[in-house]
Structures are given as C-alpha cells and as structure tokens.
Design a protein that fits this description.
Three copies of one chain form a homotrimer.
Chain A (H helix, E strand, L loop, with lengths): L1 H13 L8 E17 L5 E6 L6 E11 L2 E10 L14 E8 L2 E9 L1 H8 L25 H5 L6 E9 L7 E8 L9 E10 L2 E11 L5 E12 L4 E14 L2 E19 L2 E14 L5 E12 L4 E13 L16 E12 L1
Antiparallel strand pairs in A: 1-2, 1-3, 1-17, 3-4, 4-5, 5-6, 6-7, 7-8, 8-9, 9-10, 10-11, 11-12, 12-13, 13-14, 14-15, 15-16, 16-17
Chain lengths: 348, 348, 348
C-alpha cells in the first residue's frame, strides 16, 4: 500500500497528465573538502576544494512506462561548484532522452563516451579528487605531455550530439554500447566508439575503442581494457589505455602515442573503505621518454549511504611531463605534484 | 481519497509552510532529433538537432489559493539544449508572478508578447522545428529581409519588464490580454500591445496589435489576425501578419513593411497526426520585391501523452531574401533552404 | 497518519535510497515591482524592479538524519531575475554542506559572513529594496565614498571557500558562529570573522567582528553591533557599524574609516506591517567630511504567509558621497537619490 501511495505522490507533484507508472527524481551531490596542494618547491596552497570522491552535481531524471515493455526516459545533470556557487548551472554532465525496451536502449543527446567508462569504473577513486586516474590523461595546458589534450579531442569523458545504443541487461552478464557523435563542424567533437564487457560473480572485464576527428584527415584513436576481481576482503582493479594521434599541437604529422595503466584496490573495513591506486603514463613515438607516475591512497568513512567523510593523498612524479593532482593548477615540467583532501560528500 | 493524499504530498515536498491548497510543479521537455539541412548547392549537414516539435525546457510553476477567490502564482521556465547541455540555465522563456481572481489575471515579469500568440497558436508546427512559421520572420542575420530583425525590435516572441492583464475565462468564449513592457533604456525593448479573441465550438479567431520602440521617435508597428476551424477530420488554420518600421538597419527613414501569411492543417490519424503548412513572406515599400515561401509537412506519432516520435520536412524558396529552415545557419540570398528532422519529444 | 504519508512522499520523490527521516525541499521567491527612481534633477526612471522586500531566488535544501543525534544537510540557493529571466542560474546566494549535532554545526562552502547578519537581521527592510541599509554601504562605483567598495573586499555579504562553525541552539538564548574563508589567491576574498548574540523574550542583541585581506599586508577590519526590542505594538531595531582600511582605491596608506548606524521600527497592523528606518553613514580619517543619510518607509500587506503586496519609499541625501537607492544606477556626488516601489512578493 505504501508503494502505491508513493507512486501517486510522485505523479501528483511532477506531472499532472502523466500515467501512474511515471516518476521524476531530483538528485544531486555536494562534495566539499579542505585541500592542500604542493607543486615542486613552491609553497603549499590551502583551498576549499570540491569533488574529492564524487563530482558535485544537480540533476533531474525520469522514466515513463509507455506500455508493451517500452519506456521513455530523460536525464539532465550538470556540475555544481559548492565552494563558490559561481558556476552557471548547465546540463553538461549528461542531457539525454531515451527509448528503452527489450531491445536495449537508444539514447540521444550529450553523454559519456564508451571509452571513458573503463577509466572511471575501474579507478578506485572513480576519476575524482587528487588521486583521479584522469590526472595523467589531461595536461593542465595543451602540452606535449598528453595526447588527449594536445590532439584537441574533446571526447575523453563526454561527447555532445550523440546517438547511442545500449545492449539490454540480462543477457548472461554481457553488456555493451556503441555511440556516434556529430561533429557539427567543430574539430575534436566528431566521435565514434563502442564498449563490450562481461560481469558475473566476482569478475568484471570490459574493452572499449573510440576514435575522434582531430584534423581534416586525422583521428585520435584510443582503446582501453579494464577489469576488476572481487576477492571479498578486497576488490582488485586495473586498466590499460592506448591512445595515438599523428595530429598534435595543431601540427599534422607529429605522431604521439600515450599509454596509461593503473592498478588499484578497494578494501572494505566495516563502515569504511580504503582506496589505493598506482598510475603510470608513458609517451611513445614523438613523445618518447615522457613519463609520469601517480600513487594515491584514501579512506572513506560512510556515515550513511548518502553521506561520507574522507581523507586522501596523492603524489605525481613527472619526467619531462607536467601533470598535476588538481586540474586548476600547473606543475612545472619534471616537478612533483602532491595533494591531500579532507572532506565530506553528501548525496540527495 | 487519493486526490487528498496527492495534495498532501505536494504540500509536503515543496512548501513546509504552505496552505493545503497549494501546489508546485516541476515540468520540462526534452526534444532531440537527427536533422539534415541543405542550403542552396552546399552539402547537406547532419546534426543532432533539438526542439523539432516543442522547445526543450525546464521550469517550475505554482499556484497558491489565497481565499476569497483570489490566487497567487509564479512561473519560471527556461530553455534547455539537450544536444550539448551547454546552455546556462536561465528563465528567459517565462518568469512571472501573478495575482488571479474573478477579475482576470495581473502578471508581472518576462512573458510572451500578445502579438506572438497568433503566430504560434495557429501554426500547425507551433513555431518549432524546420517548418516553423517564424522561419520567415527572423532573418539569420540582420538583413533587409526581415523587418523584425532589421528594426532591432526584441519583442517578436517575448518581452522583459512587462506588466500584463488577462481577461478571466468563462465570459462567453471571449479571451484577451494587454501588455506594456518598460524599455529601461534599451532600444527595441519598450513594447505595448494587446490581443482579443473568440473561441467556441469549432471556431477560434483572434486579433493582436503591438508596437515596439526601435528608434528615438520610431516604432515597429505590427498587427496580425489568426483563426482556426475544426472540421473533425482536420483542423484548418491560418494567420496574416503585417509589420512596418521606418527605422531599419540603424537608419531612420528607411521604410520597410513585411507581410506574412500562413495556411495550415492538422489531420488526426489514430495515435498520429499529420501537420502541414504553407507560409509566404513579402516585402513592401523600401523592401519591395522581396519574397519567400515555405512549404512544410510533418507526422507526429504519440507513444503517450508525454512522448512522441516525429518526422518532418520543410523547404524555403528565397527571392532576394535569405531565410533558413534553421536559426543556426545562413542561406545565401535567393538560395533554397531545406531540412528534415526525425526525433523524439519527451515531456515531464 | 497524515504526517507519515507526507514523509513517505518526500522520500519517494527525491531519494530512492534515502532513509525515512530525510527530506529535500525546493524553495524560492519571486519579488517584482513597479519602481520609480529619481537622482538629483534628472528625470524619474520607470522600471520593472525586483527584490523589493525579499531577494528573488531559487533553491534546494535538505537534511538527512544520520542517527545518534547527527545530521547532514545541504543548501544550494541562487538569485533569480524575474523581470527579464536573463541571469544564468548560479548558487551564489548560498551553497553549503553541513554536519550538525549536539555540538552545533560545521558548514563548508559559500555562505553569508558573520559580519553581515547584524546589518540584515536588524534592518526593518532586511537589506532589500530602495530602503535597504546596504545602500549606504555599497557605492555604485568604487568611489571613495564606501570603504567596503573602495578597499576591494568581496565579503560584505558573503564569502566563498568558507569553513564555519555555529553554536548549537538551546544554550540559554546564546547564539554564535565563526568563519574562515580561503582567499585562494584572490585579493579581497580571504576573510575571518565571528558573531555572538543573545536572544530571549523581547530582546535580541549581537556583536560581530570580521577582517578581510585587501592588500598584501592590509586588512579591512569591520565590527558591528545590532539589537532589537519588541514592545508588542512595535519592534524597535538598530545597529552600529565601524569599518576601517588603510588600503583604498588600490593605494596603500590611504586610511579610510566608515561608520554606519541605523534606527528602525516594524509596526504590525492586522495583516499589514509598517517598516521605517533612518540610516547615516560618515567618513573618517582620509574620508573625513563625507556623509550620507537615508530615510525609508514602507507598508507590507500579507495576503498569506507566502504572498504579500507592498509599497515603499526611500530617499538618500548625499554629502560628498554618491550613494543610490538602487544598485543599478549612479547618483552624482551631493545629489539626492529617491525611489518608490509597488510590488508583490510570492514565496514557494
């Protein structure tokens, strides 16, 4: 009985003309921390940081049952900056409309790229905070130290103007998706890629491939493989990523390959969890010799399902590179970059 | 009993101190399509388009019963761009506060202009998508091909800083409104206008007049007449619009008149609907000889009240003009412009 | 029974995984008025104004019961501009996450500064509209007439990147808070301050101190004292504020002190209220001789708890200063500035 009242309430609040099976959800996350960052020999900087273990966000999503096994859904979600509140609210984290059924899901709009999923799902830090695996993917400026930044591709995490298809769930642990993104005349936006994975019991493994138009005849081609194995006392995770572009820094024929690999673990301890990862990035071809390492550890204490306290530390060692533990700051070439965060994450 | 629970829920969610008759509604639309656009002899462009049959939006609105037949209400609604999610959320589609009662409604804020209603209500495409009647009102750039664009008036669709009055419903089919907008020192913003109409049985007919300050002593004066008749098997619609300004392209004394007329039809077919319209724009006085035609057809299939699939096609023939089927792209003078959209519209 | 259904509904709508004690609230205010402003001998300007008696806003807030007397909460709230709808939605009015318990509250994010509270709480106009006490704190441009504007401090009302602590309620009428804000390299942002007060029966009195980094070695130091006494037939209020900076207009060593005091009253009359205040600002030290006065009266008629109509008038007399009754317009030095507002405030 309680359930039907609940559905009724949802209906009443949000959609006068909706059918009884509908629901719309407001959701969000506020993640704020006290952060200390140090690059090379410069003084440590104290900040009120955000997004330590989850990206701060605000969103609305809903699903409508169309009958006959068919559903329609929407999802709009944008970033928030609770340290200053200053960022204009957009819906750039995701804005999609979907048709879903036994055939799977067709999704249109702005969405994550298939190639991003293996990086974030298998990263013990979920590509957030000072220990994010993405720290060794994105150069603070468009330096020769990152094939993703230097090639001008805008599709490392998300793409606009996409049409995607997802396999249905319940086909023996298999999952997968394909996606195309219209470039609409903007270099670095045109993308196509796919991902195929298998999850059953303690095992989860997935492969993804994607390519982005970065010059008139040039593509950033990237593939990655991620996996995790749950031992119970700990979940071990890892990924390997390879990305190549011969259009780099605006110059055709400069051939840069970047490989990244990560090994990590999540160890549950009562209401808490220890997270740890080791990341390594290497330049090849015209970026030969460039190298960076990141070691990160963290502890998350869950006050509830929605609210957690956390502490985490990360340190990057650059070798001809200039990666940083925070997106906002630039480390000099060959410098170390380290950071610590003590924060709270609250979901709603 | 269900109804009272529903009201209770609404109350609980949104307004702790509200009276029991209150309600606040979150609402929105996500409309995304695969679009093909072609101008003259240039290659067709593939896009992920939006707003094919309805403008994508997010909004909140509510009504409070003040007792004694008096009500207060608010409405904030802004555009969304689900193809990229990039547009900052504003409330420029409408942001108003109202007092309502037996006397009608007094409304303050940003709102549609009275002169816009006849264009959108009687357009089978609701002034959305490649077949929108507005395509022949708004020049892609401020060319001599549109008196609305060229005069610098910002009031074709909406006005800021308005005070409006609406007749109450239930006065024998009569409806109407008047509106004034403070210019606040911005040329093209100061507006006053009104609309009067009659709807009963199969008939709906309305007349509107408005004038916008476009120079120190100059006004864009516009009037239009719209009507529809529902035959049952089809609803026939049409409008005629006349707009004149003798301040054009920043020059006083350039006298431009533009007339637009439209004939259209909506034919219901089970869960679907066929939409069709023919639009013609003509320049007069200093814009004599300019002319453009648009022919548009579409099919909407309703999966539910909230969700629809659609396909539509439109083609503009320019004669000394440069109108386009999409706001984002510019057709050369005398070029044809055509576009097709295949999409989904989901309301919440 | 009704109460449990209500909680259930809240839960269902907003937080699938939430515990039953949780709630999330959407809230907001739309405040729009017809405003007349006149500076010196210039013509009166007619505007559709906003924020006459309350700042227009949109927000979401929630509290989660973590058990054991501990709670987590969030609050995001941003301004709205219902006259034009044009402002991009941000959350700059407040964006915080909190841990609350018997110990009080720890709050992180963007929040009001402790020194602001005495100015707004004891102002009969709540620092809103043409009669706001802030009118004599903020110069329309960075003139030598305001130590707050001229010193470059950005912390008169709010600060970003703050960590704050609030005393718990229920400790014998005592209340208080302290706050530090990380500057993060931006001059005028680094702040620390506190406030301590006592409220019991008809009495409320509070003292606050704050200092903001405005030069490499320079601080804006401000303290204020506010109080109110409720006689029943009227509530009398007042504050005194002293602010000093020897870094002014970008020049080190220019020593400016500004004092402001206010006396006011709120007189309840059935469903209505009369508000009145007298403000005086005086420059000292290098701003010696500068002076401004403001006299303001208003009447608010409450149609309900959420909706009110209001009329108010304010007049500023400048003496070597250039303060204005509206933030958007600049009065010449020594000019009078006056304004009247007739509006509606609707909360949701």
């Amino acid at each position: 009985m309680k359930k039907s009242l609940l559905a009724l309430a949802v209906l009443g609040v949000f959609a006068g003309a909706a059918s009884a099976q509908s629901s719309v959800t407001l959701f969000g996350i506020v993640d704020v921390n006290a952060r200390y960052v140090k690059h090379g020999n410069t003084d440590a900087v104290k900040q009120l940081g955000t997004d330590g273990i989850n990206s701060s966000r605000l969103g609305f999503r809903g699903v409508e049952d169309l009958g006959g096994g068919l559903k329609a859904g929407f999802w709009i979600e944008g970033a928030m900056s609770p340290d200053t509140g200053a960022a204009a609210q957009t819906w750039q984290r995701r804005s999609t409309v979907s048709l879903m059924g036994g055939f799977g899901e067709v999704r249109l709009g702005r969405d994550y790229t298939p190639t991003f999923w293996n990086l974030t799902v298998f990263d013990p830090f979920g590509t957030n905070g000072v220990g994010s695996s993405l720290n060794l993917f994105v150069a603070p400026a468009a330096l020769a130290t990152s094939v993703f930044t230097g090639s001008g591709a805008a599709t490392l995490v998300r793409a606009s103007n996409t049409i995607g298809y997802f396999l249905p769930s319940g086909i023996g642990g298999l999952y997968g998706q394909v996606q195309v993104a219209a470039g609409e005349g903007v270099t670095g936006n045109k993308y196509m890629g796919g991902r195929i994975g298998y999850a059953a019991g303690p095992v989860d493994v997935a492969f993804a491939y994607g390519q982005t138009q970065v010059g008139s005849d040039d593509k950033l081609k990237t593939w990655n493989l991620g996996a995790s194995y749950n031992l119970g006392v700990a979940k071990l995770t890892g990924f390997y990523s390879n990305a190549n572009s011969d259009f780099f820094g605006g110059v055709d024929g400069v051939d840069v390959t970047q490989t990244n690999w990560m090994l990590g673990a999540v160890v549950p301890m009562g209401q808490g969890e220890i997270h740890a990862s080791y990341n390594k990035a290497s330049g090849k071809d015209d970026a030969d010799g460039l190298s960076a390492k990141q070691l990160a550890v963290g502890y998350v204490y869950n006050l509830s399902k929605r609210t957690a306290l956390y502490a985490q530390y990360s340190r990057i060692t650059n070798e001809l590179t200039a990666f940083s533990v925070t997106a906002g700051s630039v480390a000099a070439f060959d410098d170390k970059s380290s950071g610590a965060e003590f924060g709270i994450r609250h979901s709603f």
